[in-house]
Known about the structure:
The structure is a homoheptamer. By secondary structure, the first copy, chain A, is α+β, with helices and mostly antiparallel strands. Chain A is built from six helices and eight strands.
Amino acid sequence: xxxxxxxxxxxxxxxxxxxxxxxxxxxxxxxxxxxxxxxxxxxxxxxxxxxxxxxxxxxxxxxxxxxxxxxxxxxxxxxxxxxxxxxxxxxxxxxxxxxxxxxxxxxxxxxxxxxxxxxxxxxxxxxxxxxxxxxxxxxxxxxxxxxxxxxxxxxxxxxxxxxxxxxxxxxxxxxxxxxxxxxxxxxxxxxxxxxxxxxxxxxxxxxxxxxxxxxxxxxxxxxxxxxxxxxxxxxxxxxxxxxxxxxxxxxxxxxxxxxxxxxxxxxxxxxxxxxxxxxxxxxxxxx
Amino acid sequence: xxxxxxxxxxxxxxxxxxxxxxxxxxxxxxxxxxxxxxxxxxxxxxxxxxxxxxxxxxxxxxxxxxxxxxxxxxxxxxxxxxxxxxxxxxxxxxxxxxxxxxxxxxxxxxxxxxxxxxxxxxxxxxxxxxxxxxxxxxxxxxxxxxxxxxxxxxxxxxxxxxxxxxxxxxxxxxxxxxxxxxxxxxxxxxxxxxxxxxxxxxxxxxxxxxxxxxxxxxxxxxxxxxxxxxxxxxxxxxxxxxxxxxxxxxxxxxxxxxxxxxxxxxxxxxxxxxxxxxxxxxxxxxx
Amino acid sequence: xxxxxxxxxxxxxxxxxxxxxxxxxxxxxxxxxxxxxxxxxxxxxxxxxxxxxxxxxxxxxxxxxxxxxxxxxxxxxxxxxxxxxxxxxxxxxxxxxxxxxxxxxxxxxxxxxxxxxxxxxxxxxxxxxxxxxxxxxxxxxxxxxxxxxxxxxxxxxxxxxxxxxxxxxxxxxxxxxxxxxxxxxxxxxxxxxxxxxxxxxxxxxxxxxxxxxxxxxxxxxxxxxxxxxxxxxxxxxxxxxxxxxxxxxxxxxxxxxxxxxxxxxxxxxxxxxxxxxxxxxxxxxxx
Amino acid sequence: xxxxxxxxxxxxxxxxxxxxxxxxxxxxxxxxxxxxxxxxxxxxxxxxxxxxxxxxxxxxxxxxxxxxxxxxxxxxxxxxxxxxxxxxxxxxxxxxxxxxxxxxxxxxxxxxxxxxxxxxxxxxxxxxxxxxxxxxxxxxxxxxxxxxxxxxxxxxxxxxxxxxxxxxxxxxxxxxxxxxxxxxxxxxxxxxxxxxxxxxxxxxxxxxxxxxxxxxxxxxxxxxxxxxxxxxxxxxxxxxxxxxxxxxxxxxxxxxxxxxxxxxxxxxxxxxxxxxxxxxxxxxxxx
Amino acid sequence: xxxxxxxxxxxxxxxxxxxxxxxxxxxxxxxxxxxxxxxxxxxxxxxxxxxxxxxxxxxxxxxxxxxxxxxxxxxxxxxxxxxxxxxxxxxxxxxxxxxxxxxxxxxxxxxxxxxxxxxxxxxxxxxxxxxxxxxxxxxxxxxxxxxxxxxxxxxxxxxxxxxxxxxxxxxxxxxxxxxxxxxxxxxxxxxxxxxxxxxxxxxxxxxxxxxxxxxxxxxxxxxxxxxxxxxxxxxxxxxxxxxxxxxxxxxxxxxxxxxxxxxxxxxxxxxxxxxxxxxxxxxxxxx
Amino acid sequence: xxxxxxxxxxxxxxxxxxxxxxxxxxxxxxxxxxxxxxxxxxxxxxxxxxxxxxxxxxxxxxxxxxxxxxxxxxxxxxxxxxxxxxxxxxxxxxxxxxxxxxxxxxxxxxxxxxxxxxxxxxxxxxxxxxxxxxxxxxxxxxxxxxxxxxxxxxxxxxxxxxxxxxxxxxxxxxxxxxxxxxxxxxxxxxxxxxxxxxxxxxxxxxxxxxxxxxxxxxxxxxxxxxxxxxxxxxxxxxxxxxxxxxxxxxxxxxxxxxxxxxxxxxxxxxxxxxxxxxxxxxxxxxx
Amino acid sequence: xxxxxxxxxxxxxxxxxxxxxxxxxxxxxxxxxxxxxxxxxxxxxxxxxxxxxxxxxxxxxxxxxxxxxxxxxxxxxxxxxxxxxxxxxxxxxxxxxxxxxxxxxxxxxxxxxxxxxxxxxxxxxxxxxxxxxxxxxxxxxxxxxxxxxxxxxxxxxxxxxxxxxxxxxxxxxxxxxxxxxxxxxxxxxxxxxxxxxxxxxxxxxxxxxxxxxxxxxxxxxxxxxxxxxxxxxxxxxxxxxxxxxxxxxxxxxxxxxxxxxxxxxxxxxxxxxxxxxxxxxxxxxxx
Lengths: 287, 287, 287, 287, 287, 287, 287
């Protein structure tokens, strides 16, 4: 806490001058080299844009960002050099360090999500949770993976929207492209229709789809009528489950629904009312 | 922890005075230069207002904000100088630094969201997640990007509202203007109508739109009937999907809905009831 | 960590007394001046109440608050002075500082939202996100801005309620008063009515409003029928969009809805049922 | 870090004894005076209970709380004294301070919401956001303010429930008692009734209320028919807006609704069905 | 940072041995006394169980918990003693303290909710927010207060469930047992019935209840017809408000609802349909 | 901060060697003993599995976990030893401790939920909030307590699912097995049926259940008709409340509902419509 | 705080050189060995991919990740070495350490979720909360456990989607595969049908299922009619509960629902309306 060396000696003065010189030279060097390095790496990231739209725009963007990064680096290096020289001449750095800690807390807390992104990305890659081309659900978004790196995952949703999800936002991963899937079809029939007949119809149509040459390659196990899955006031829900290859889960379910709907309508096993169901929300045009 | 130098020496006194003088001169310099710099940069930000409404208002705003910033800078510089001088004369700065750490925690935590904004903005730009003119969804808000900088993104929603979203609030980005989109049209038909006929009608109209010279440039792949996507108690939903250019996704879907609605009505494939559906909420006048 | 100077010397005793005296004088000065300053600035804030209700109440409030602030300032100054004197006489301040750090953490964390308010307010002003008179949406509240300062924004909602929103609570800002707005009218028509005729009627009425001298100045671009935006079980929604001046968005939409409703009713293009729609919640009397 | 003075000297021993004695005397004094002060201030808070139910209960409560506070104070003072004496005899306090920092973090974090309460309360009072008697909405609770102090706001909801809301929980304040209010009445009419006639009836009744001597003083501007605010499948909503004195907003809206309901029923402009609306939830008896 | 005293002296050795001995004796004492104290206080808490079920179970529980607490205390005391002795012999404690800080952060953060509980409890008691026997709403739970202490509040819900709510979880308190309550009855009548007649009937029955000797003592102010509070598509809601004693709010509202229901049914002012309302969820048997 | 002792002396070298040896021996000892202790305690926890499925699996699990714990312990002990020796030879440990603090923050924050679990568990046990066999609601999960320890509570839900809830996740506890419960039966009757007759029937049946020898022991107070608890558009809800023994609350309510339903059906006091209620969701087969 | 040793001595210079050399050698060693170790362990994790898709892809992934880890390790080791050497030559490391603390806070906070994952995983394994093959519910996801390790749990949902859930995200665990389950069937019958008869039918069919040889092994206790569990406006819900083996809970419930539905339909105890229930949402094709 003694801020100034109490005794001034030539020896100390020489040593101090030497150190100061050394620090200045090193600062100059790291500032130069660091700037060149930062400039190059940012340029390479920014021009290697996800969708590869090279051209003047990405060039310009890279220039701007590299400029920002180089400025920050220089401020950092020269502040460090200044503090070290002050330390050499014996000034108490306490107040400066206290001031720096304010910036430090802000930077540290602000940057923690970046660390989370990289850590999360590391484990996603190391544990091979998903790969490019898989259909996954992360952070309430479903889509096909287009690109993964340590910081971000890029998805393409079914409506063509590209979603950029930082890996740190991913809490749990649902991957629908591993080994097998299961097409689950819930058929609602009026409670007063003949359950035995309806079940037979459903069974028949489900089997027909599975036997259809177009679909038979996708079906890993024959369809199974699981029974009445839900019982409402005047209708019941019969569930059919079929083990399929992962990618054919949804198309197969749609095909089964089409055929079963057609048969039930043909055989008159639908509610006869013409009053429409109240609960189908109109297809929103949010697309 | 020995607060005062135990021996008073002339040498020490002289050194102390010198240091004090030096600190005062430096403080004066940095206060002056810093003020000028702060004043200028804030003025340039504030008069370069997002929507470029130059004029007396932005001038006055700049003056006020620059005044606040300059005051804060001066308080900071002179506090630092005062503490350094106290350190030079040998006063124990512990209590002051402890007091400062209170302010530091508050400032650091309060400012962390600012750091987040800039970091987030840096990656949005570096990874080219979106650009001015793209239609994106961020922070539950959809709109056309009007401006991006390191701290904030400005969107224009479809109803004309301008949304300012700090980049740190952006957790995931949905960009609907990359490469292609998909127009998805869900057609609800009564379960007791003829599914085969209805599907044919839908197919026909969708193909007609795709072949229409007005739309054919927007259609990247011919429309595809995916099948029965959902099965309700007395109606089923048939989904049509068409790959389009990104910007034409919604208009094309609207056009298809118009034509299919018209045909189904003409051909009598709609529920005959006149009892309105219960679930359409009235169009809210929140606009 | 040697709490007491091991050697007692007259020289040290004299220096200590001098320092103690100096600290006491400075503490007295800063306590006096600080109190006067705090008192005045709080009075000026509190009597300059948002809605300018000068009078005995605001006077009394100012007195109370200034009293609280002055007390806090005095406690702070004299605690600092006491600690400095203890440091001068050589007492180890460790335990006191540890005790103070408890208070510091609590104060620092508690005050971080204040820092956030000011930082957020600074950027709202510097980036001119909104100004007095604009209709904005912040923190789930929509209203007309009545006052902005660095800490708080005051809104007046449409029902006359005044909302005080600390700027730090504002995550994204929606400003409906920039350049232009868009009046969006969704017209619901029964699915079994003639879509072509209905569209013609809607087109006609929308154009009539736009041509009406009362409204023509507000209309920046002629109304556009976007097509069928949503398709329900037994009704479809046709969307009309009109570019307007920002402030006329809602009134114009209401006028269009009135005229279109009238025409559709006159021409009999409404559901004929008398059974009321189930989903309109009764207008809540929460006002 | 040398825990014990390496040389034992009489001088040091005497100085140590003196310091120890001094610390003990000071600890005794602050313990005594502090206890008395804590006891009195808590008693004054606790017996000055919000609803002023003086009597044996509040007396007893005050005694208990004061006992707790005095015990805590004594533990604190004597721990400090003990640590100071240990410091005087030269024991390394590191382990103790590390132990204390655990308590410190817990206390500091636990107490931050208290700091928030006071800071928030300070600004509510300084900015005069609301006063006793105002009808406000804070923390999802609406009611009449019965008491405000720096820590807490007491509301009386319309059903008589008293709500104690710590000021730190208040994120935004809605004050319905400033300058003026606006009575907004949404009238739902069947889409197939004559809109022109219905609007005329609504206009007439609204004007009649405004002209009524009972209400005319509350009406600041004549009622205004804003037009069709929402369009449902088979009904439309016409909005009437009237600028009123703040307190009369809700009663005036109720009166208008009564009269308009009566007229519409008398003139037969209501849905003729007897099937009740499905969406009115039964009035819950949560009161 | 010089970890070992560079010079070994007999004097230092003796002093060290003395200190070591002293520390061991003190550790032994505090371990013994602390254990006894911890054991007793925990036993007294645990056997003074909320619902006073003394007996072997609470005895056994007390024994277990006291065992845990005593072990923790001993580990703490002897660790401290060990560290102090290491400090005396001159070992650098840095690594140990750094290790301890890990535990400290975990303990401190984990324990902060405990501090919150006590602080919150202190203010609940000091400000007399509620007392045993009051009906209150805290943390989304309504019930009668059965016990309050500094850490926890025990409620009895209407279905007999006992809720233990730590005071720190209480953000705002709703107390329905202060001074008065208001019985609010919302009567739904079909929009096509005669509003004047219906209002008269409601007024009559409400007044009859208020005049009833059974209820008249509970009624503080005569019932007031507030008017039409909500207007639906085919029904309107008339609100009656009566100021009552706090405890009679709900019973009085039920009585009024019974009588008004009876009269409206007798006078035929109910919807004539037999189609049940869709929205009453069946009484869940969650009890 | 002088990293190396400036003077090398034989004495210092010898002392250093001695200390190094001592540290190594102690490290060896604590590593050995600690490993054995960790191994044993983990084995005892892991083989004493909640559901007591002793056997090879739990044996193997114990071996794995003990291996992990022993490795961590060894790393910790030898790192400490290494740092102490470095300190003895006079190396500045600053960089190492700074590096360690990174790990420390991560560990400390990550482990805070563990501390919360134990603290929460301590109070649950000490205050006897629930015991094995009680039916409780914690963390949105209801079930019968099967086991409580300091870290976790194990519940068995009514469908047989076993829920493991860490005690720190428990914010409030609802215990339905204390002293008494209240069977609350809400009977919905059409608004146009005779309320007096219906109430009489309900009263009669409720009394009959209470008098039934099967149930009379469970009934602590005779059933009470509370009156009309809710009033809908075309139905009203009459509430019956009966004080019971805690465990018989739900069965008694079911019995009452059965009998009242039967009587009301027999006496024709039910809605005559055959149109089913719309709101009963079908019994989901989530079980 | 004296940054440079004030006296330059040959002895000190030699010692410094020696230390510097030693540090360099050690850094080289740990860099080499650490790299090899990191490389190997990451390779073993990454090639031991969850679903064992060995091959070029996992090989390549391992190479990339190992490269990243080795680079990070080298940066860390050489930074530490650099700082130690600077310390040896007597440079004040304060500014460097302050700079490092920024990185430290970010890393520490970012990594805390990793620590949580491992801690949580440790307790899941130690307390045997679930094992491979169990059907569990964690983090709102239900599925069959396919793999557990200390960091992550892998589930297979019923539709074939694989869910990766980090253990730290698991707050409470529901395990449906312990000892027994309970098949709960809620039968909805119209309120106007004969309750006694319906109950008899339900009882009969439930017993028939339990007696059926296919199911009798799964039934641990005979089915029990619990009574009327819920009472709606025009229907009541009768609950049947059967204790089963854990895995047969859902299939048995489906079988019972099928048989009871069939019988009730055959015996005419269903609502006769043909108007479909409004609330069954159509089976979404989210699969």
